[in-house]
Structures are given as structure tokens and as C-alpha cells.
Amino acid sequence: MKNKKQERRFIWLCLAPAIILFTVFMVFPTLNVFRMSLLKWGGLSANQEFVGLNNFFILFKDMNFIRSCQNTILIIVLVAIVTLIFAVVFAAILTREKVKGENFFRVIFYIPNVLSVVVISSIFSAIYDPSNGLLNSIIGLFKPENWEGIKFLGDQSIVIYAVIGTMIWQAIGYYMVMYMASMSSIPEHLYESASLDGANKVQQFFKITLPLIWGNIRTTLTFYIISSINLSFLFVKVMTGGGPNGASEVFLSYLYRQAYDNATYGYGMAIGAIVFIFSFVLSAVVNKITLRDDMEF
Amino acid sequence: MDKKTNRLYRIFIYVALFTLAISIIVPVAWVFLASVKQNSEFYGSPWTMPIGLHFQNFIDAIDKANMGEYFINSIVATGLGLLILLVVALPASYALARFRFKGKKIVNLGFMSGLFINVNYIVVPIFLMLLSWDKGISQIIGQRIFLNNIVVLAIIYAATALPFTIYLLTSYFRTLPKAYEEAAYMDGSGYFRTMVKIMIPMAKPSIITVILFNFLSFWNEYIIALTLMPGASKTLPVGLINLMQSQKAAANYGPMYAGLVIVMLPTLILYIMVQKKLTQGMTLGGLKD
Amino acid sequence: MATLQLKNINKIYDNNVQAVFDFNLEIKDKEFIVFVGPSGCGKSTTLRMIAGLEDITSGELFINEAKMNDVLPKDRDIAMVFQSYALYPHLSVYDNMAFGLQIRKVPKAEIDARVRDAAKILEITDYLDRKPKALSGGQRQRVALGRAIVRNAEVFLMDEPLSNLDAKLRVAMRSEIIKLHERVGATTIYVTHDQTEAMTMATRIVVMKDGYIQQIGTPKEIYNNPANMFVAGFVGSPATNFLHGRIENNSFVIGDLHMELPEKFDSDIKDYEGKEVVMGIRPEDIYSEGIVEGTYPSASFTFQVDISELLGHESILHGTFYDQPLIAKVSTRLGIESHSQTKLTFDLGKVHFFDVDTTLRIDK
Amino acid sequence: MATLQLKNINKIYDNNVQAVFDFNLEIKDKEFIVFVGPSGCGKSTTLRMIAGLEDITSGELFINEAKMNDVLPKDRDIAMVFQSYALYPHLSVYDNMAFGLQIRKVPKAEIDARVRDAAKILEITDYLDRKPKALSGGQRQRVALGRAIVRNAEVFLMDEPLSNLDAKLRVAMRSEIIKLHERVGATTIYVTHDQTEAMTMATRIVVMKDGYIQQIGTPKEIYNNPANMFVAGFVGSPATNFLHGRIENNSFVIGDLHMELPEKFDSDIKDYEGKEVVMGIRPEDIYSEGIVEGTYPSASFTFQVDISELLGHESILHGTFYDQPLIAKVSTRLGIESHSQTKLTFDLGKVHFFDVDTTLRIDK
Amino acid sequence: GGSGKEADTDEKVLKIAGLDGGFGTGGWEAVAKEFEKIEGVKVELEFEKNISDVLRPRIQAGEDIPDIIYLSIGAQGGLTDTMVKEKQIQPIDDLLDMKIPGSDVTVKENIIPGFTDALNLRPYDDGKLYLAPLNYSPCGLFYNAGLFAEKGWEVPTTWDEMFALGDKAKAEGIALFTYPTTGYFDAFFSALLNETAGPDAYDKMMHYDEKTWESEDAKKAFEIVGKLAEYIEPNTVAQANGTDFTKNQQAILDNKALFIPNGTWLPGEMEDAPRAEGFEWGMMALPKVTADGDAYSTTFTEQMYIPEGAENVDLAKKFMAYCYSDEAATLFYTKGKSAVMPTVNASDNIKDDDINKIFYSIYDNGAKANAVGFAALENQVEGVDLTGAEGILYGTVNSVMTKDKTVDQWYDEFLTGLKKVVEANK
Ligand SMILES: Nc1ncnc2c1ncn2[C@@H]1O[C@H](COP(=O)(O)OP(=O)(O)OP(=O)(O)O)[C@@H](O)[C@H]1O
Ligand SMILES: Nc1ncnc2c1ncn2[C@@H]1O[C@H](COP(=O)(O)OP(=O)(O)OP(=O)(O)O)[C@@H](O)[C@H]1O
Ligand SMILES: [Mg+2]
Ligand SMILES: [Mg+2]
Fold first, then answer.
1. What is the pLDDT of residues B91-100, one digit of tens each?
2. Over the stretch A122-148, which tens digit does the pLDDT of each residue have?
3. I want to staple B186 with a disulfide (CB 3.0 to 4.6 A). Which of C80, D1, E54, E398 is the partner?
4. Could you tell me the distance, in angstroms and rounded to a whole number, from the CA of residue B280 to the centre of ligand 4?
């Protein structure tokens, strides 16, 4: 049995720097945010009025917030599902298959991830362009003469999907890298064994790869939630400004709009608090749902 | 017959790979081309080829964004941030992943909740905190040391990246077989050495992932650097703002794209250098089970 | 250099499987203890508790009189060969072996000497630079062994360290381990399924079953005086034959064969007069040649051989004896074929009797 | 159900280690081939090439006359027991065994029947719900074996499938595998270090060394007529004694002992008249009892016993014979002690002679 | 308020922070240099494209606050808007009566009359001036004068003519109207309200007077915008965002649309853009509602102000005063990118061959000027952004143009929002 005291000392020594840094630079500031969410405050003056949970009550009746909520959830769900599928499949191909030019593909797929949001937005502005955009040109090939381009960023029912498409394009490489790292630690002999058991590549993928990187996938599900919330803001800010007429508004863009444009800083912070709680609860739920036995090889 | 399905399978794979690759190459090539276009070429159809190679864009970009000095700053902030991050996060993740102890749930929950904190809205409180420290310290030593300090910036980068990093590393450390630790203990290795010499090397793929992703986020970080380094000394992304379009003014597209290309290169180069290590399995062949 | 005491040790795993029950054992300095027992009986578990890798659910462990339950593995000065090798996959063979010495700050030159020495003994000198991945099964096992023997630990724990080696190498390794033990004198606990190893290496053997100790004794004791039917049946190959019969007038009766027992049994079987008992006899104590026929004429019988299995120099005869299966081991020279008949005699001087219910040995 | 042909197969690993050289073997339907050889000689490598897990560097592999070099493992209909088990860590024991059947879309009820059947045979029924992590070494190995035997594959490859089992279980498993082989009739290749297994299970044995085949033959052939000194020395335990001497007048001369050889050697040793040769004799062919003394009186000598090792029923005598080490295996009954003298006789009918340079057997 | 740090330096330092925007920083640098010479002080300039982001934390902390901030209401980041709403700006009434450094004239005398009366400069109904106007530019509808000449079209003077022209253009495949983003409707719509309801009603509306907003005249403005939806360049909404708005502006250069609401900076902004043959910039005020009505053109001004916590208030005012000198006006125009100060002589800087000449003479051609801006509110209403660029009043235009919302819905939504705002500020 282990010497508990020595073990405890080691554990806390390991944890202490992290806990200190984390507490000082993240926990305290966050508590501050929570505190501000209870204020009616424009953000700059000393004129702060404590209003309790009032900001939150307003929030639940604020249709614009609810719309940004719906948009965000849609983004999270779609981006997570589609990216997950693509990233896992491509990671599997690039780690498990002997493909020619493997390194080439690995590098290419990662590139969108290193591009800045501004660049990506201009790329997609060129792709989504209603008259000479890439997508419309391609669709135009199959459509009759007087085909009018789809207004990806102008149509309120499409714009959010346009944002989602951009986000997926950007995210695949990121998650692919993550999955490649965890796939590479699956012992080769399991695949050997499975192939002798008659499993083809697809079956191997579902029966070996997927279960064995399940822990990693669960981890990334949380990342999808967080990064969808964060990135959707950046993309929306640059690509659509939340428009047309708020149709692509998401959590954080709405937060900014309220905290800064509308000078209701306390209210904005209340949105921040809700976003925090929402994402926390959501990923706790997702975590719970996806729980399988923890796995070591 | 089976050769045929196998063939189909491989064709499918290549089609998939090439489709995605093209969907990336085309737009990215577009960016590279854009970076050598002249300004007038940016109006009208975005899909025209550049008339000539306008490399002046790059010179303008380096000039206007003050890239020389800012580059160094970014390198320092990113490198130091990564170093601090790894030194702090690796032991913490290891301890969280491989030991049972009282309070683990709470610590885990704490770090986990940290994932959901968005730096965008805590950066101002951080700024206020540093400012008050500065006020305090300047009364003692007559100097302000927390704001406009690249080291502090690096520390804060590390701190804000902790939840993500710990979460990722913890989930990886959990998958490593216990047997290796046990072997090390039997060899007389203490907790610390076991962690450093045996377990951390085996976590290499995920450490590389962590380095890669945090490099990216530190390198491109804007809001913290902007807020905590309000002085003249800036990081690259903040400096890059100078290349962006400003309201009601003619845009300088060429230099902007050139600048963005320059900034993205280090990350890409880093990735190209480490991507092979990413998939080097570190745990094979040691166990019989 | 070390004594060990295990007192009332129990081990219950997290999933509520109890793997070891009330384990008691005193090990003297420089002893070479061998654990044997069926697969899953708790040998590795016990070793791992001694090493400090598993919590001791209850009971106490002492090394050199000091209680060890709560001492860290690294502070117990134990070297161990893992059943599953547990080689460091990212280190070369050399570094795998050197690791424990580097930790102890042994001078570089000495590390080198010791590692190369061990590698030579283990015949893995050529592979010192390879990673474990590029080794054959037996080579990996030898590295695992090497990692332990380069250490001059107080206690050596070896969990089936030779199971993946060929017979010749195994013999060589066996004698190297014996030599090492003689030289270093470290207290050693050794798990094996190889009876020859157990018999030739052990100062004492511990026979386990289902987490319980069945018998502790020298190889001779275990072989000649098994405590119960399990030990009798487990040690020796092919296994001891167990024949059910009755005690009648100092004779053991099966069917119409009345075997007159030697005097030494008299006092012990008194209580069983007229009762059913089990006679245990090893296949090698059944003779087809005339050797014991004169001594125990009442124990001769004609045996219907169903299968005669050639085993090089010896043959194993399978058949039934009054409806009970019986196996005899005889010299191949006699050329007994399958489906033939032959005359056999039990060496009644070597038999044991067991209680039907408790399975304990009756004769002292 | 399947024939196999291996033609001129070579294997060079990525690190330029050549593990298998020019391997040629024809395996008939329903054969039970056993690979033996020292650790690292290329047994697993060969198996893995047959399974399709390693590329064949050069040469051709045919199964049922069809070239297989480029066929995927999954399409070869081979079941394999891995030396390192390779259990699926995320699946229960049951699912580990059922996996291959589920893939093949065997009906659920049949899967269940087959798995439970195998589990019963392997005595792991109690562990079906556990994950491999919570099993003992031997239990894991049995799961690995179970995973193969539930499959009705055309070819079975088993890489030391019983090495971590106790003797008793091993005997039981051995006969189960034989039964399985008789019932299913699948062509089987089996790697083992256990000579008993090799001798009792094989239809033919392949002896390998350093990547080369040394001899292919039935167990009897291998045992009785080893092709060279390596095979003679490798098969049988303790190993064959090799004694250097000269041929003089149809006699084998060591020191002042002139052993008159039986007639059968006459023609073969002619060419070696006056030359040095090596005589190989198994320890069990050296007798201390009078059995062969009458037949070969010239081969009797007095032996100085250095160590007498008790091995249950038999004793191993170690000593030197004209400065050459000699080991004899004699009945324990005779009670020969260490540091004593005893009279021994070589059974000259069983000896072989080998060329000193080529190590090949001289006598036919 | 700021604590007195750097108190030990003898030399006074005036800190000016501002937006590095469409007019560039050259003018500021030149003016600052002059001022340094005159006053013997040091002027520190901090001009950034993201100045809101830079300043916000400092202002929140009350630390290191500049003496003058040059950042307009409605600029990205909403800092100045918040400063106004949060009452973080110091009154500068006395500025008007100050003598301009280096001359005898007072500021008031040198500013074009009316410019300092704009509601957004005096947001609190306390009669005091808080923000100082600078860089004025007329806003109106820009078009390709060359195209009109080529087609022989008359520039419409009333909305009826406008729509008639729209039909004519449609036949040629040209849309009547486009706009860069909805943000540009503040100038457009306020001019329109002036036309439909008249200046008094407009003033009331800017003070959130519900009654006036509910009037038919007010609604008329909404309806005119609604009618434009029939004539909108089809890609407008899709491109009405931060990345693509130049494509909408390009539509004018490419003759895809006839009119775009914008300010005088537009030609400069599109300087490098390719254009249709014979292209020539033209600009007009909004068409009149009726033939005998007034045409309005919004005068857009930028603002500078002294924030609370500024240390050198007096010096700051001095500098501001200097900005209204003729020298400064010249420097702003020549060294900056054609920034025109609202001083009486500033337009003299515009040479005859300067394209700006046409634009700045728009009022000489009969158009009336109006200023944008609502009164500041005591209480902001959480979740109700009534007047922001993407708020209910302007942001909804996108929906109206795509017909996702009818004019009535838009109007009702606005009135509902207005009610909430009024409620909160009773
Ligand atoms: N992946 C590999 N890369 C390089 N060399 C290898 C690799 N695997 C095995 N070898 C080498 O090839 C030779 C044959 O190995 P193989 O595993 O076939 O031996 P084996 O006969 O199965 O031995 P054992 O009885 O010890 O399992 C060995 O010398 C081994 O070191
Ligand atoms: N981690 C574990 N969790 C639960 N049960 C376990 C665990 N490890 C082993 N067991 C069980 O405990 C019992 C004893 O296991 P142990 O490994 O000590 O057996 P062993 O005697 O070493 O067997 P073998 O000869 O097969 O290696 C077995 O029944 C096994 O299934
Ligand atoms: Mg074990
Ligand atoms: Mg092997």
C-alpha cells in the first residue's frame, strides 16, 4: 500500500502551481463577472446599482437573447456532429491507412486552423459571394440561365448555416489532430487481432478505434461546446455582424452588443454568467450521457 | 472479388481526401494570391488571378505592423507561456489522472469549470487586478511591474490555457497502463521521477497536441495582449490591427493579407515540424496483455 | 539480506473479488520461495502486495521486522519481474535495464558493467539498442528479467520469468538465477508453473489454490508428503492417480483387488476401517517391470491400455482400473502399445491415503 | 480444410534485421505443425507472415493453392492466438471471444453457445463479464486461446498459447486442443517451448534456429534421428550430451575407453576412420542399472557424480567424463548421491555421430 | 477619478487618444506639433484603429485616462456612446467663449453657426455642451453622374420621381438603391424624418416623444424605406456586413445600382476601386416628400471630448480651441485626409478642382442640413437596442429589404421598444 502522506504531498505539490495560477487569474476575475451580473451598470461610471437577479429575469424574456441562444445551440450541435464525423474519419484514414502523400494531407487539413478569423471570413466572403462566389458558380453550373445566386449571408434562414459551414471548415483540422494523437496510442496488435477476427477496416474503425478513443471524443465534445460558443462569436462579428437584423446573433455577440453597444454592461455580464452556466451544464450532461467505462490500453 | 471492394474502398478514401484537400487548397491559395495582389484588384470578382506579384505588400506589412519588434514580443510571450503552461499543467494533469485523493472531485470540477470561462469577459477584471497590484507594489519599490510586462502576459496566457490543457492531458494520462508506473516504482523510482521519466514521455502525442494548440492560441491571442500591454510594446496580433481596414477609409487589402500570411507561417511551420511525432505511438511493445 | 513476514493477509479487489485469503508466511533471510498453484489462484496478487503495488486489504506485511503496509514501493528495495514484462516502451533495452540503477545514482561505469554483464548472461547483448517493440516475446521476457537482476535488491520477486523461453535457455537461465541467488543471497519469491523449476530452485514451495495456501514445505516434502489431494494432484506430471476404495483389514480394496498395505500405514488407517478412502499414487510409482512385484504381489493387476503416449524415453499409459481412470508412466523400452494389455504393479510404499470428505492426507 | 505452402520466404524487418531466411514448408490439410526453436529464432515472425500481419519480404505463401501474399488478414480465414494475447481492453471476456463471430454475423444464439462452450473448456466461465484488466495472467491467456477456438477457421495459428498455465491446466488444455483439432480438422501451426507439447501434439515438427529451418519431421524422427547437433541438443531435456572422440576400427574412442559400435554404424563411419567425431547421447540413454551392460560391455565406465539433482521420480547426475561434461538421467530409486561414484553404461544402440565441422549427423 | 501619478514631471503633457480612422492621423500630428510650439507643452498622441478596446479598460479602472478623446458617437465598440450614457464626459461650455490660441477670435465666432447646437453634442437637456464637433461632412445619396448623363436621366428631386426612375432603371437591369450597412441609415433616416415630419417633430422624436413617433408623418418615413425594398439591389443585404459592405459601394461604381446613402468620405474610400467607364461621382440630398417640401441632407460630424478623470482639463480645452483655428483647419484638411472642420473658413481649403467642392456645396444648392442623434437616456433598457446601428430602428431595415418583415411590423416593433425605453426613463 502506498504511503498516504508522501503521496498526498506529491499530489498537492503537483497541483499547487496550477491551482494558484488558476485561482488568481481565472477564478477571481470570474467571480468578479458574476458580481457585475447583479448590477445595473453601464460599464464605465461608478454609478452601479445592485439589482439582484433582475438582469437574469429580463434575460429570460428577451427574445433577442433567446434567438441568440437558439442560434448558438444550433451551431454547437451541427458543428460538433459534422466536425466530429469528418475529423474522426480523416484522422482514422491518416493514421491507419497507408495513403500516398499522407504528410501532405496532414498539413493541408491543418491549415484552416492556423488561419486567422479575418482571413477565413474573407475567404468565405469570396465563397459565399452572391454573384461571383465559388459556391454560387458551382451551383450555377447545374442551374438554368437566369439562376440568381443564393444569398448565403443575406437570407435570414440560411445565414446561420453559412456561419456553421465556415466553422466546420475551420475546425476539422484542429480536431483531426487531436484524434490522430489519441488514435496513435492504440496498440497495433488490437488491429491485427481484429483483422484476423475478420473485421474489415470499417468494422475495425467502429469496434476498435472508436471505443478506444471514446475518452478523447468525450473530451472534445466539451471543446466543441466551448469553441463553438467562442468561435461563433468571432466569425459572426466579422462575417455577419450578427445580421441580417440579428438573424445570426450568438451568445457572445449578443453579450457584446448589450455590454458595449447598448451600454448595459451588467446585463452583458449576466449573459456571460448564463453562458458560463449553460455551457457547463450542457457539457456535464453530454459527459454523463456519453459515459462509458474508462479505458486504458 | 474482394480485391474489388478493397479497390473501391481505397478509391473512396482518396476521393474523400482529395475533396477535402481541394476545398482547403483552393481558398488558401486564394489567400496567398491575395497577398500579392494590388489594392485595385480586390474590388470586383475575387477569383481573378493577380496581375503581377506585388511583393511590396509584404514589405508594407512588415513595416506598418512594426513586425520586427512585435515579432520578438510574440515569440517571447508564446514561448514562455508554453513553457510555464507545460511545467504547471503536466504535473497537475498527471496527479489528477493517476491518483485518488480527497478533494480530487472539487479540483477536477474547478478546472473543468475553468473551461467555460471566456477570456473575453474576464480580461478586464484581470487588468483591474494587475493594476491594483501595480499600485501596491509601486508604493513599495517605486516601480510598476505587472502591466506592460511580457512575462506577466506569458503567465496569464499559461493560466488561461490551464483548464483546456489539464483537461486534455488528464484524459490522455488516464489511458496509460498502470503497469509502467508500477515497473518504475519497483525500480526504486519515486513519484516525481516516475512522472518525469516514464509517464510524461509516453504522453508525447498529447503533449505535442497541447503545444500545437496553445502555440496557436497564444500566437494569435489579441484581447489579453491588448489589454495587459497598453504601452508601446505590443504583440504581433495587436500590431496587425494597423493593417486592418478602418472605418470610412480605403482598405489596404494587399498588405493586410500579406501580414496575415506572415503571422500564420510560424504556426504552420511548427505544425509541419511536429506532425510526424503526433502519431508516433509511445506505448507499444512494453506489455503482454 | 531480508526476512519477510506475511500475517493474515487478505486481498479484495475493487470489484469485490477476493483473490487472497488469510495468507500467512514467514520467509527467512536468503530463502528462495516458490509459489505454485493453478492459474488465478492469487500468486501474482500476493507478489504485488509484497511489492506494494496493491493495497493489502487486511493483514500485515513485515520486511526485516518493519511493518511495510504503508511504505512506498520504491522504499522497499525490491526488484520485480512482472508477469506482463512492463518494459518501458520508449526506452531502449539498455536504458530499460539501467533505469533502476540510474535512479540509485550508481556510477555510470558500473551501470554499464552491470547491464552488459546481465545482457551477456541473458543473451541479449545484440539487442541493447533496440526498443522493446522490435523484440521477440522471449527476448522481451529476458529484458524484464535483466531489469531485475542488475539491481542488488534485498528482495527479488519474479513472476513467471522464464515462461516464454525455450527449454534450453530456460535451463540456462534457471541456473543463472540460482547462481545469482547464491552470490547475492537476496531473499527471493518466485512464481512458476514449471514443476522442474519449482523442484530444483526452491528452498520452500508454497502451494496455493483459490487464494488459500494449501501447503508450505520443501520440494521433497511437497512431493513426497502432499498435505491433501489437491497438492498431491497438482505437483508432478502426469498428475497423481486417485483411486477410491475401502480399507479392510489393513488392506485397500478396489473391486476384487485386495492390496495389503505396508505396516507403516497401520496406525493411521485404523479409524477408516470399512470406510471409503482415496488412494493417491503417482504414475511413475506404477511399474510394469518386475521391480516391485516381489515386494507387493497383492498390488499386481492386468491393465487394459487404451492409449499409449510416447514421450521420448518414457511412455504414458492411459486406461481404466475398475472403472476409475488410471495413468501409468513406464519405460518406452517395453514397447507397450495402445489397445494392448500389460501387467502393472502399484508401489504401495509410495502411496498415500486421503479422507474422502476433507481431502486431507490420512497417513503421516 | 486447408493446405499451406511457404516458398523461399524471407523476412527483413524495417530495422534491417533479417528474422527469417529462405523458409520452405508444405503443410498438408489437417496437419498439426509445431514450430520449435530458441527464443528469437523467427517462429512468431513466420506465424505473423502466414497470418498476413507482416509483409513477406520475399517468397510466396499459398493457402489452398492460392497465392496469399497480398490478401488481407481478414480474408485468410485464420484464427490466431497471439503470444502477447492482444485482448480487446474495452470488451468483456465474453465479447472478446464473441467478436470474431459477431463480425461474421453468426446467429446470436450460436455465438452464445460457442462462447460458453469454449469458456467451460477453458475454465473461465466465471470471468465472462470481466474486462481483461481484472484477470490473472493465465486467465488472459486462456481468453486469448478462447477467442481463437470459438472460430471455425481453416487455419489455426497458436503462438505459445499455454505458456502461462500451470501444468495441470496445460495438460487439460493440450488435450482439448487435440480434440478440437480432431473434430474440426483445421490445419494448425503451433509454437511452443514445451517439448512435451511438441512431441505429443505435432504431426510434424519444424525446428528453427536463427531464422533457418534446421529440420522438419515427425516427433519421432526429430527425437530419434536429429539432423544435426543443434536439433539433437535442442530436443529433449536435459539436453543431449556431446562427447568428442575418434573413430578407430569401428570403435568410438574417448581417452582409454574403446566403445565397440554396433554394426549398423559400420558403413557410415568408414570415412571417419581415425578422425574426430562427436557422439551424441541423451541423458536418459545412459543407464546405471544393468539393463544394457550386457549388450554393450565396452561402453561401461565409472562416473564421478558431482551433483545429483532430485527430480521426483528421476535424478539428474552431473559430472565429467574424460574432461567433458556429462549428464545422465537415472531412476531415483537407486539413491545415487552427489559426490559419489557409480557405474554407468552408454546405450550404444541409441547414440548418433556428428561431423565436427558441419555438425551434421553422420549415421543414417 | 485619476490619481496624480507622474506629478513630478515639470513639463505639462497633454494626452490625446483617438481613432485612426478614415481621416488618418496626419492632421492631428501636424496640429499637435503646432500646438506644442504655441503653448510650450508636450502633446502625446495615441491613435489606434481599435481605440475603443484600448481605452475601455483604462477608463473602467480610472487610470491613465487621456485628456482628450477623439472618437465619434456610433463608432465601432460603442465607447463614446457609453461614455455619454454613463455621463463620463466633462462639460465644455466655456470652450465656446475661449479665445483661440494665437488669435483674437473666440471659438464660437469661428464655428459655423448651429454646429454646436446638435442634440448629440448636448445630450442631457441641461443646456451644456459636452462634445465638440469636428470633421463635418454632408451625407446624402451618391450616384454616378456620368451614368445619368449618358442615359439622359434627371436626378430625381422627389420620392415619386425617385421611384419612377427606379422603374425605368429596373428595365435596364439597374437597381435604384443599395446601402453599405444598416448603420448608414442613421443619417438617411433622420433626414427622411425631417422631410416627412418637419424639424420640430424631428426634435421631439429625438427626445423619444411617443406621440410624435405614432403620427402618420413619422410612419411615412418608414413607408418610404419600405417602398425602397422593391428597388433594392438584390445582393445588398447579403453584403451589408463588416467584410462585404464595400461590395455594395462597388455596385454604384459598376452601375449595378443608382443610389447609395453615404458621406463625403466615400470617394476616398473607393479610391482604388475599378469603375464603369465615364464614372463620375455625384451626390444629392434626399428627394423631397412633396414637390414643395424640403430636401434634407444630414450633416455628419465627428466628436471629441474631455472624459471624466482627465488631468489637464484646461490645457485640453485650450487644445480644442486651437483645433478651431484656421491654421488647424487647414492642417486637418491638407495633412489629414480631407477632414473639414466646421469652421467658417474651413471650406476655403477645398480647391475648386477638388471633388469635395461639389459635396460641400450641397447646402448652397438648397438642401437643408440636419444633425443625427437621439438625446441621451437616463436609463438604458436591458435587451432593448432601439437606436444602435443594428438596433430596432435601423437594423430591421435588412429584414424589411428581404421582406422578412413588413413595414408595419418594423414600425410596431419600434414603437414597442420605444415604449419600454420611455417607461424606463419616466
Ligand atoms: N518488429 C520487429 N522489428 C525488428 N526486429 C524484430 C521485430 N520483431 C522481432 N524482431 C526480431 O526478429 C527475430 C525473430 O523474432 P520472433 O518474434 O519471430 O522470434 P520468436 O521465434 O517468436 O521468439 P520467442 O520464442 O522469443 O517469441 C528476433 O531476433 C527479434 O529480435
Ligand atoms: N485487477 C483485478 N481486479 C479484479 N480481480 C482481479 C484483478 N487482478 C486479478 N484478479 C483476480 O484475482 C485472482 C488472482 O489473480 P492473480 O493474478 O493473483 O492470479 P495468479 O495466481 O497470478 O494467476 P496466473 O498464474 O494465471 O497468473 C484471479 O481470479 C483474478 O481473476
Ligand atoms: Mg499471475
Ligand atoms: Mg515469439
1. 999 999 999 8
2. 888 888 888 777 887 787 777 766 667
3. C80
4. 24
Give the number of other CB atoms < 10 A from CB of residue C151. 27
Q: What CATH class does C241-355 carry?
A: mainly beta
- pLDDT tens for C102-127 read 988 899 999 999 999 999 999 999 99
What residue ranges do the domains of chain B occupy?
65-284
User: CATH homologous superfamily of domain C2-230?
Assistant: P-loop containing nucleotide triphosphate hydrolases (3.40.50.300)
SS (H, E, C) chain B: CHHHHHHHHHHHHHHHHHHHHHHHHHHHHHHHHHCCCCHHHHCCCCCCCCCCCCCHHHHHHHHHCCHHHHHHHHHHHHHHHHHHHHHHHHHHHHHHHHCCCCCHHHHHHHHHHHCCCCHHHHHHHHHHHHHHHHHHHHHHHCCCCCCCCHHHHHHHHHHHHHHHHHHHHHHHHCCCCHHHHHHHHHCCCCHHHHHHHHHHHHCHHHHHHHHHHHHHHHHHCCHHHHHHCCCCCCCHHHHHHHHCCCCCCCCCHHHHHHHHHHHHHHHHHHHHHHHHHHCCCCCCCCCCC
Q: Looking at the domain that runs over B65-284, which CATH code has it been given? A: 1.10.3720.10
Q: Hey, are the CB atoms on E269 and B249 less than 8 Å from each other?
A: yes
Structure confidence by residue, pLDDT tens digits, E379-398:
888 888 888 878 888 888 88
> Chain A neighbours among B 189-228 (CB < 8 Å)?
190-192, 195, 205-206, 208-209, 212-213, 216, 220
Residues in chain E closer than 8 A to B230 (CB atoms): 54, 57-58, 64
Q: Is the CB of C83 within 6 Å of ligand 2?
A: yes
Nearest-angstrom CA–CA distance, D194 and A173: 52
Residues of C in contact with A7 (CB under 8 A): 72
What CATH class does A55-289 carry?
mainly alpha
Q: Which chains touch B (3 or more CB pairs under 8 A)?
A: A, C, D, E
Assess A146–C contact: CB distance below 8 Å, yes or no: no
Residue D281 CB neighbour total at 10 angstroms: 22
DSSP track, C267-280: HHHGGGBTSEEEEE
pLDDT tens, residue by residue, C188-202: 999 998 888 898 899
Question: What's the rounded Cα separation, in Å, for the pair C130 and C112?
Answer: 16
D17: Cβ below 6 Å to ligand 1? Answer: yes
The residue extents of the domains of chain D are 2-230, 241-355
Is pLDDT above 50 for E4?
no
pLDDT at C1: 65
- Does the beta carbon of E242 lie under 8 angstroms from any beta carbon of chain A? yes
- pTM score: 0.88
In order, the DSSP letters of C27-44 are: E-TT-EEEEE-STTSSHH
Cα angle for residues D201, D205, D208 (degrees, 5° grid): 135
Q: C touches which chains (3+ CB pairs under 8 A)?
A: A, B, D
Out of D44, D54, D83, D206, give the residue to mutate to test ligand 1, the one with the largest number of ligand atoms within 8 Å of its CB. Answer: D44
